[in-house]
Design a protein that fits this description.
two-stranded antiparallel ribbon; mainly alpha; 71% helix
Length: 226
């Protein structure tokens, strides 16, 4: 993994780190990253606003953090994991996966979260990287190295899930949504110099789209009922 993690050759990871830190600084100056009004103004997921058409929040929330320790932990994991997966999937595909996994995580929060909850953070996308590892383990069973690489993340995922369950401030729904998104997207985007069966890619694309619309419908229904 050391050979794969080279931040100097990972332009997308570097750009994501810079954007997250820059947004955090701007929000701090604007009134504080734990200020609800500031969070909403900068694009955090607020269910009523999303339900009323501000769907862009599903994306912008991936670049917003609530407090110093929140961004510190997320940027540490992005620094560690980003270059690895960027080199495995290529910069363009890595960026697409990162953003789509984040959106899926925020869709799950929108679907099942409380109406008065404000959520944000890159962890939806980061859990997408964990999901990619699991998907890699399942999709490349005949490749001992990739299968072993994917399996090496199982204990990390379990530890993070347990921590999320024990910490009431952690957005568990977003994490699980990002994880699910990553698993599915592993069947859409092949690892560089590897192939995926066309049936696997077709099923994965269909699953991602169907689930996204399902979570939108659930979120809209739950909002209208309440």
């Amino acid at each position: 993994m050391n050979k794969l993690r080279n931040i100097g050759e990972s332009k997308v990871t570097t750009a994501l780190l810079a954007i997250n830190v820059l947004v955090f600084i701007i929000m701090t100056v604007a009134g504080g990253t734990e200020n609800i009004n500031v969070l909403v103004r900068f694009g955090a997921v607020a269910k009523p606003l999303v339900a009323n058409g501000q769907w862009w929040r599903l994306l912008t929330a991936c670049f917003i953090h609530i407090g110093f320790f929140h961004i510190m932990f997320n940027m540490y994991f992005l620094y560690q994991l980003g270059p690895v997966f960027e080199r495995l999937y290529g910069s363009v595909n890595f960026l697409i996966i990162y953003l789509l996994a984040g959106i899926m995580g925020n869709l799950v929060s929108f679907a099942f979260g409380a109406n008065n909850t404000v959520s944000a953070g890159a962890s939806t996308s980061l859990y997408g990287m964990f999901g990619l590892a699991l998907g890699m383990m399942m999709n490349y069973k005949d490749d001992a190295m990739l299968r072993s690489f994917g399996a090496s993340f199982v204990s990390i995922i379990v530890i993070n899930i347990v921590y999320s369950l024990m910490n009431p401030r952690v957005g568990m729904l977003g994490h699980m949504g990002g994880l699910l998104g990553g698993v599915i997207l592993a069947g859409v985007f092949p690892v560089i110099n590897k192939e995926l069966a066309s049936s696997t890619r077709l099923i994965s694309v269909a699953a991602f789209v169907i689930l996204a619309f399902l979570f939108i419908k659930i979120g809209m229904n739950s909002f209208s009922v309440s």
